[in-house]
């Protein structure tokens, strides 16, 4: 289901390649939720608004997460685990998962138990709050915290790597596995673009420096808001 939604999004977004100026104009003034943009990742970074961050008023409970939006008995955590398993787990009553195998790209590890994994919000909830989500409605924050419509936004990783990351941005933390860092930065920018989040100056500078050693690959983003 998740794969099908992602494929549908990609097929619907064969739009013209946007310049940084055009991309910024689209995301700031013209594009609406459900619209899509495609542009090189460095242009996408340049299009993100740069603002000072504030964590005033943040509480994790302000992001209702691990809901069961489609009421199939499996919450968001279980949906991600099922979608990202490299060997499918068995699903029992109440969506209890046993067996299975997963790959954690943050630290280049294979794991054989769902209990060893966390579902990471690629852009952490606290970082999203700092970057604009403090102004959202409770429903928008719930949708962000349970976003299954873009496979980049939620990712199954080892609990150890996720807890090492905590709520840090790419100026403070990068995946221990060096081979995944370009993908991590690219997906971070895609996620912030999708949700209309800002970056702070230190974050922008770190991403700019890190992307200098990465392919300037195009990203396609379906805007969530």
Outline:
With 225 residues, the protein is an alpha+beta fold.
Topology (elements, then pairings):
Blueprint: H1 2-11, H2 20-30, E1 36-40, H3 41-47, H4 76-84, E2 90-91, E3 97-98, E4 102-104, E5 109-111, E6 117-121, H5 125-130, H6 138-145, E7 154-158, H7 159-165, H8 181-195, H9 201-211, E8 218-222
Antiparallel strand pairs: 1-8, 2-3, 4-5, 6-7
Helix pairs in contact: 2-3, 3-8
In the sheet with the most strands, the strands line up as 1-8
β-sheet strand percentage: 5-15%
- Topology, number of strands: 8
Which structural class is indicated by helix and strand composition?
alpha+beta
**Overall pLDDT, averaged?**
90
C-alpha Rg (nearest Å):
17 Å
Largest sheet: 2 strands, antiparallel
State the end-to-end distance. Answer: 22 Å
How many alpha or pi helices? 9
Q: What's the shape?
A: globular
Model regions low in confidence, pLDDT < 50 over at least 5 residues: 1-29
Helix content: 25-40%
Order of helices and strands: HHEHHEEEEEHHEHHHE
